[in-house]
Amino acid sequence: MMHDICNAPVSLNDTKLVSEWNGMIRAFLAHGTATPTHLGAVLEGAPDFAMGYATKGLFSLMMGRKELNGVAREAGQAAVAALAVSGGSTRERLWVRALGEWLDGRPSGAIAAMERVLADHPTDTLSAKVSHAIRFILGDGVGMRASIENVLDAHKDHPLEGYALGCHAFTLEETGEYDKAEATGLRGLELSGDDAWGLHAVAHVYDMTARPDRGIGLIENNCSAWDHCNNFRYHVWWHKALLHMDREELDIALALYDQQIRADKTDDYRDIANATSLLMRLELEGMAVGDRWEELADFAQGRTDDGCVVFADLHYMMALAAAGRADAMDQMTARFAMDARRQGEMPTRFADPGKAALGGLNAFAEGRYGIAFANLVAARPTMQTIGGSHAQRDVFERITVDAGLRAGQFDAVEALLEDRIAQRAGAVDGFAAKRLHSIADARRIPAQ
After folding, report:
1. What is the mean pLDDT of the chain?
2. What is the Cα–Cα distance from 401 to 372, expressed in whole angstroms?
3. pLDDT of residue 444
4. In sequence order, which residues have a C-beta less than 8 Å from that of residue 73 and are 6 or more positions away?
5. Last residue of a domain, one of 159, 190, 210
């Protein structure tokens, strides 16, 4: 049996197909546009390659779109049929199992299958990245870190070591080890200059520690890390916009929105999340964003019954609320209530924190700030479970803070801000500084 670039067994008997498979691995790790092209070539040349179908299915589920569930299910059926013909390696059988587990509503089972692969093949960067990605969707920062740290020693002098370090840097940042995250991410970039994930991990560090100049310089001086990317490059531009916002350069942030972040009117939920969260941040800072919400709301209105990822649905609701799409908001609210009554790993997230967070967003849009604050505070302890990063979920923190300020809940908001600052290693960004100043001003005004 042949081995791939991860030094893991792969049941392909043609060196050209192994080369395509290796190309797929590298492209996937680098968030490159060539990922599906390489995978398609492998499946065309090896129609009984079970792991190839499992890969297609898992990648489809990662997209978080209801219509791709059918694609993933068909891929799963093809993978099972291929295993019946070829048998496959233990690694490949576990990949097929991972897809089946996720299709059955148990993404944690998919993670467990990947971890079993890694126990046998700790050099398998592909399986490590997939475990990392699914845990990211589930908001499991601690698990992400433990998983990648288990295989770091095996990746020393590995051809894909830089990508492993990029994953490690991101987990270090998400668990508050900012200095280590910065050093690890920069080292990873030295080894793998096209690692957008590693670069973005360091950008996270600069966002969380209120060092916008460093973050902007990092992105501008490492174009090769992200200019080859699929839609992940929009997310890098999003990070750059946040860093400019922290420098009070709201006009530059809005220009980045128009010229980069939404230059292509895509409907990937991650792109919609970039856009909605940036517009909301700008509005909270008092900037008029014109009719930009309408385009996002048009996409969101077609997603009210998706129910794949709570993180995505909350951003859809943000767009619907900002554009005043009352009927669609009602449909989304009703579907959240329905999903929250179901059993399973994802439905529990609709029940908590989903319903409370959704109610908070609705109330905020309607100017019912006390209710918005109460709901968002209730959701806050479990918000990490909706997935995404601290930086991505920070838009909900900002809405919570501003709802509390508008409701006159100054003591509670101050405590929330202090907690937010503590999570950022004591760094006070522009958002927190302004709100703390507002609280101090409000307390100097005598009661009437």
Report:
1. 97
2. 10
3. 86
4. 57, 103
5. 159
pLDDT recorded at residue 447: 56
Domain count, the chain: 2
Range of the domain at 119: 1-159
**Percentage with pLDDT > 70 across the chain:** 99
Residues 149 and 271 in one domain: no
Domain limit, last residue, from 109, 138, 159: 159
CA distance 407 to 423: 24
Q: Tell me: do 308 and 429 sit in the same domain.
A: yes
DSSP state of 105: T
Q: Are strands 2-3 and 9-10 parallel, antiparallel or unpaired?
A: antiparallel
Residue 170: name the closest of 153, 149, 151, 150 by CA: 149
Residue 445's pLDDT is: 75
Which residue stretches of the chain have pLDDT < 50?
none
Identify whether 383 is part of a domain.
yes
Q: Report yes or no on 269 lying in a domain.
A: yes
Cα–chain center distance at 311: 9
51 lies in a domain?
yes
Q: In whole angstroms, what is the distance from residue 164 CA to residue 148 CA?
A: 7
Instruction: Establish if 273 belongs to a structural domain.
Output: yes
- In the chain, the amino acid numbered 290 is G
Helix axis angle, 141-151 relative to 161-174, nearest 10°? 150
* CATH code for position 48: 1.25.40
pLDDT at 448: 52
- Helix crossing, 212-220 with 196-208: angle to 10°? 160
